[in-house]
Design brief:
- The structure is a homohexamer of 236-residue chains.
- Chain A is built from 7 helices and 8 strands.
- With 236 residues, the first copy, chain A, is α/β, with parallel strands linked by helices.
- Chain A has a 7-stranded mixed beta sheet, sandwiched between helices.
- In chain A, α4 crosses α5.
- Chain A is globular, with a radius of gyration of 17 Å.
Chain lengths: 236, 236, 236, 236, 236, 236
């Protein structure tokens, strides 16, 4: 399985879905990280520092990372040119599974960083356009149909309704903390790890494990049989 | 895997989720049907005829069927006594997977037969109460925790938003028709099979197969890995 | 009655609302088709072929067709310049009724082709701006107030909640198929007619006719009396 | 056209949809009022006074009125026995159009008088059960299929989202006030007419008339042609 | 200020809103606890033990507690008799502020313990009926209008959308733990305090404090000036 | 308290939230008006006239007014450059409270003037970006964290669901009318004051006062104690 995880800023994948990625890498799946800015608008950390922090975090996760310029931190537009840039990335990495920031219409809404919303929507549309053969400007990259698009939640202060999918990440919680800790420059202001760990703890307790992370699906999950889902999330 | 499928009237399971059950039986899973009335309010068919039709349909599906009296067709209440009757059934059958009519809050709403809504809610609550040890009146049946509660759609005239889960049922479409055809008395008025087959055809075409049936989840699906879902529902 | 039907790509009006248009033409109403790209991003079919297919389909429908360039297939932006281009079209055709792709907030959501969403929103806004006298750049076209804005659904894989309005199109189903069949180049990949006919069959059976198409309203329907609606959609 | 308007308490139809009824009576349609309690829990007015006030208001509207006992004011249950009592009424009056309090799922929600919610739901379900031939206890009344179910809003403090249907009632506003004024006992405490007239004025101004009343549909409106809706609600 | 906090089972107020109550008691406000069952259906703990645990927890909170019999644990119905029993309680305690379990329509939905939903709805309706003078059976208690109805969340596994109101409860977190710990019998199975503390921690971090509890409003908050709300919940 | 009220066109603040501002000025708070176009697309009134009308209305309100060019009336884009222009304004005025047009996701939706939606979203995002230290192009203005973001409704024809906050504005209704009347050029076409006064009257009657205006919150309201909200909106 080939997984592409897209983050708007250098630390978003780490806060939102890193423990899932860590587990998939350990299971032998190929994970690629794609970061859409260098976090240049943050109160702390230079772009150079943040790129370096990202590379370290990617090593902890165990996945290669690339950067895509969509106009810069706090300036990412949801528009046609960016949609095509993202489409080209999907055709290049040819993933079966894509992870994008929870955006727009699936619960989280727009009341969050506008770059998160823009990237979530760009990835959703790009996953569609990637299979149309005639899209001008990217015809040299052969069309590609992804299998699954999942959304992850970054640092929304409040939960976003029940996730569609939940995964126990207790076994890799320490490695997750290590990946987040790579983003040293971001720890100077607000404590993002505190927030995401408290949230993962809440979701974990609710299903009877230590820590859990939720995902939201873009499409119905196609099962062969109900036996495809042996674990249960019913606990309380 | 042990599956309990609950229907308010004699033909609801057949219209709503029979092809999934047919496939699970073929895969070696144990399926139990539970019907909560004898359809005595229908314009056509005596209760005796309808019980007999149900038994024939159950044979086509390949599963035993039992009847539970909740007050009679068009008289099923969503109340505490019925909730406990249903809880007792869950403790008796001890299923890992429960299938109930789509009711109330997951899209379908209350704009449907009130018995459908009542049974959907009774099953949802009963699946919860079944694990509480002290519930009076059913203490002789040991508590039981189900693993999954899925909802199926019966004959809602309009679709109910995208399902959470979708299953290709093309391979058993003929057997499904045969199971529905057992309910001869109900074919005299409106053509329910036409409706549900047209709906299954629409959902099927949308994912690139002949016929498909959707389910709605009550709880997040707990995965071990994203690789648990190898098939994709993305087609158009 | 003067009807303007707007489609993002050459075949969208045909898939989404052609049978309604065919019936309105037969009833003596003036229908104008407006197509906002030449489908140049499709996997099959050159722009020239697709324009020709569109002209043939328009002849089957019995309505003239014009093309509007909004940036090209897969590149249509929801922005101010396009909003004014669309506003100019509405002032030019001066329709009482406008049909646009179901977009954004009325059920269908953004999980569809981004051009569909963009055109739906552009038409909605243009129908508003068309009556403001001072809008720069289009002052030579006198302001115009439309009477009704309806949305139609194109090829959303799943239904989109109950439509607000439903129309029996059984009598023109063959002509509808003929109109869709004009788009020969699009039949090479996925079978769109199969999808939209299965959907129209489902909606048709649900109201007791062979085929039906639904519309969603942008505004409350203003009636003179409840007797304005003599037909009923209640069947199951 | 045969219209049945159902109100939980003696003044609810008057506050909620009387002007529409006044206009339909004037247009020659048969209107029947059905009131489901005698308002015996009100702070002011005896049941006898309130019945008399209701009869006077019905005369102003120009329609006969009947009373149905569903357990008493503040005690109306949404349960199977009441559902059958209501079903019998629908079979008795055999209306093509039914008007019921806006309840439960169409915007208004449950945050209102529980009798309003209960009656809205009872009517919705009764309109369905009325066509099932075998419902025990009411078999002496032949089955009946209604054509339309509309909901009206009573005294919800806040509007309930845009109505699906809107009707200009300016021409009968004075007669409407007269009908409301019949409920003298209810004017001693809070000024309900002030509230509903302010609301009707807001809706009226919004469509460019003096006063308007909105309705919510239970089912899609089935049109023969888009020309069935000649008036427009677009004004601001 | 006079506060009435209503809980379905002996420990629900403790898990859901105890720290707010602890702070209001400390500020000199009068708090009354009302518990609607003795938790007799729980897997652990006799009714006698649970009553005793409740009394101890009430002492920690610093408020008197009473019990109301609504049919028993797992048997609480949302019906007219219970509605009147609850109305009588509101007339008896005459609170300005009422706290009830989050139920039905404000986010939390019905996918929780049915007693929680029933009590939430009963309190909502009772707060309305309490001001109607003529309600039979409780006329000896003079009518009462409450000022505010807030909902609290008990042990919903997932968060329920952003709360309308949020209160820093960090200063009383230890006392809150002590109140929960009084319910010794419930700690034998699942760890409810772990769940609610993780949730309060998540909400707390999100607003920049240690622990916070959210409430949902039944009605708009009426302010005199925007200066009534000096504190901000904006942090991340 | 420092309040910034942002309006897309010259009269929007006057129609939407002027009476609240009038009261806050009277209470000694500092109010700043920011208008994002000169209304140059209107059917009546030149830009010069409209600026003059705005200045007069601002004097009635008792607050200074500034203009911000975001591309012109009917051309305001929700994009990154405009987001930064708005962010700079927030850093310049450094308000504790910001009032913006109700947009997008909180009930009102997109079915309104596109400039209203764009400005509502721009302000929401700008209030977030204003605290990020590294945003390029506005680094000379020191970061600023606002305390509260409230949305006001302009001239939506229909109400937008219950507001989160409601304020009695009866005492300043005449001054409000005077402020609206300053926009003489806009009175030639549709009567906006009629609409907003009817709406304020409806909301007022609903809470037992003459006129009231509602606001919608972007974030949970953080209270110190439930006693922070002494007034009640419960009346009917």
């Amino acid at each position: 399985m080939n997984i592409l995880a897209v983050g708007p800023h250098p630390d978003d994948v780490e806060f939102g879905c890193a423990p899932i990625l860590i587990q998939e890498v350990a299971a032998g799946h190929a994970v690629q990280l794609l970061v859409c800015s260098k976090g240049e608008a943050a109160s702390s950390g230079t772009p150079e520092e943040r790129v370096e922090e990202t590379r370290q975090a990617a090593q902890v996760i165990g996945a290669p990372v690339e950067f895509l310029d969509l106009g810069g931190d706090c300036r990412i537009e949801y528009n046609a040119p960016n949609r095509l840039l993202m489409t080209a990335q999907i055709r290049k990495f040819r993933p079966q599974v894509v992870l994008a920031p929870l955006a727009g219409e699936k619960w989280a809404g727009e009341n969050q960083h506008p770059d998160h919303v823009a990237v979530g929507r760009l990835v959703r549309d790009a996953a569609r356009l990637a299979r149309y053969g005639g899209v001008e400007g990217i015809r040299d990259l052969p069309p590609h149909s992804i299998g699954h698009l999942y959304y992850y939640s970054i640092t929304q202060p409040f939960q976003t309704g029940p996730p569609d999918v939940v995964i126990d990440v207790g076994p890799v919680e320490e490695k997750w903390e290590a990946a987040m800790a790579c983003h040293r420059s971001q720890m100077r202001t607000r404590s993002y790890p505190d927030l995401v760990l408290a949230r993962a703890r809440t979701l974990g307790v609710s299903i009877g494990v230590e820590y859990a992370v939720g995902l939201w699906t873009n499409d119905p999950l196609r099962l062969r049989s109900l036996a495809d889902i042996p674990l249960s999330s019913r606990y309380f």
